[in-house]
Amino acid sequence: MATQIADIAPRLVELGLGEGWKWDKGSWWLEAGEDFDLRATTAKLVALNARFVAITAIEREDQQIRLDYQWDLDGALLSFTTATRDGQISSIVDLAPAADWVERETYEYFAVIFTGRATLLPLMTRQGDAPGINLRKEPNPEVAQ
Amino acid sequence: MSYRIPIGPYHPALEEPYKLDLTCEGETVRDAEMTVGFNFRGIEYLAERRNYLQGITLVERVCGICSNVHSLSFCQAAEQLAGLEVPERGLYIRVILCELERLHSHFLWAGIAAKLIGFKTVFMACFNLREKVMDALAAISGNRVNYGMNRIGGVNRDVTDPAAVLAILDDLETAIRDIVNPIFLDDKTVASRSKGVGILTREQAQAMGAVGPLARASGLAQDLRKAAPYAAYDRFEFNVPVETAGDVQARLVVHALEMIESCKILRQALNTLPEGPIHTLPPAGAKFKIPAGIAVSRVEAPRGEVLYQMVSDGTDIPKRVRVRTPTFMNMATVRYTVLNQELADSPLIQASCDPCYSCTDR
To answer: Quick one: how far is CA B146 from the chain centroid?
Structure first.
């Protein structure tokens, strides 16, 4: 990408969004530590008029799911990297309604339980379908090697 | 007394399959519930079981309207992982494809909006103009829908005759200025069906993470082409139309003005198309390798922001491909926009969000 990326890390620190921001391949990243408070950070981002973009779930080898919470702040993409504990994480829907469909989808694809919300109604699947579509392991026989 | 009207998943009032349960009192909508997933194909699951080349073909089929932005987002993510620089001419051609795609998507939207307003002459005019855009796309790529233009490292085909595309653009721009926009911007019948109808406030748009023309019609001035430029967008002069009313009329205005801006970008890109290669080639005999890592790519599709996150473990097959589409964020706003509106206006209100269920369901 030819476009120069402005260094907004000092501003993110100033806004109280944590320290250790790094730009890498399309996003500003913050590896959330043990003391990371997802809900407090969400409330802060909402107060800053940041736009909720997505949650990206990635399967880890320790059976937990890495979760990248992505927000747009004045055109800059911020990704907070955290993970489930025992397959669960707090819901942020009451703070950021935009996360509703994303949490429901993440449950269906990766069986992540979002605690503290009323329901996880099916979105793409149908009532009774088992969650965790993307955790299935069968290979695709058609794939070209 | 209230009553419930189930609409869909297959219904004449809907352009695509989804289900809307409206609770009404008399002719007024008091509540709405939405069911989606009728087009679910498991694209993210499938993308993790195909190699990168097969992945381009797969993601181009996420959507039949904005197919190009999906393959572009996918390729941009892979290029970041591989550290590949796309040649300048390739970047310009990507912009040309993106803006032609935006034009044909906006003409489609304008035609459907006109039909739902009851202005079928404009529907015919918009679809006629859309054909001209698709002719231009077919002349460049050989295809009308899935163009097969993007590859990791650039584009597959050159724009060999920019003058021919500019000639089509002259006709389009004249028709937009003389036929389409006067009706959407000034006509009293259109205003009577759209002004004050289906309002999405700025606060609601912000809370729901709305994107694209829907958000811009509610006063949110966000456009990745300006805020986080990709391809060659930072080389061109253009405006981002923003309206504040948040109603169907504001969405009409934003779409109408965006078509003019797309023409402006296309004219600049076609007139200043640089010489040179259209893609990066690996050294003779070598293969592109996608090293392990994570990359994110965002593109401003006709309906708003598309996000791809790609995770590579260094093999030929991506470990994870995340696809977040604009309608996935926008469609949940319908619950707000149809509330306390006339039942008869609900098809137009839904259509004014420019829904794409192939994108939403993936």
So the answer is: 14
Q: What is the pLDDT of residue B54?
A: 92
- Tell me which residue range forms the domain holding B329: 52-333
Looking at residues B39-49, what average pLDDT do you find? 90
Q: Is residue B266 part of a domain?
A: yes
- Identify the sign of the CA torsion B7, B8, B13, B18: positive
pLDDT the model gives residue B129: 93
- With 60 as the cut, is the pLDDT of residue A72 above it? yes
From the list B49, B305, B311, which residue is nearest A139 (CB)? B49
Q: Is A70 on the interface with B (CB under 8 A)?
A: yes
> If you ran DSSP here, which 8-state letter would residue A127 be given?
T
Q: Determine, yes or no, domain membership for B27.
A: no
Percent of chain B residues topping a pLDDT of 90: 67
* Domain of residue B210, CATH code: 1.10.645.10
Contacts of A109 in chain B (CB under 8 A): 44-45
DSSP B126-141: HHHHHHHHHHHHHHHH
**Which segment of A90-94, A135-139, B1-5 scores lowest on mean pLDDT?**
A135-139
Question: Does residue B11 lie in a domain region?
Answer: no
Does residue A22 belong to the interface with chain B, where contact is any CB pair within 8 Å? Answer: no
Does residue A108 have a pLDDT over 60? yes
Domain total of chain B: 1
- State the residue for tokens 């698709």: B134
Q: Check CB contact under 8 Å for A3 and B44.
A: no
What share of chain B has pLDDT > 70, as a percent? 99
Residue of B50, B56, B322, B330 best to disrupt the A interface, most CBs of A under 10 A: B322
Lowest mean pLDDT among B55-59, B106-110, B279-283, B328-332: B279-283
**Is residue A9 within 8 angstroms of chain B, CB to CB?**
no
- Structural domains of chain A, with CATH: 9-135 (3.30.460.80)
For the entire predicted model, the pTM comes to: 0.91
Q: Which residues of B touch A133 (CB under 8 A)?
A: 42, 45
Chain B contact for A124 (CB, 8 A cutoff): yes
Position B217 in a domain: yes
Of B294, B307, B311, which is closest to A53 when you measure between CB atoms?
B307
Contacts of A129 in chain B (CB under 8 A): none
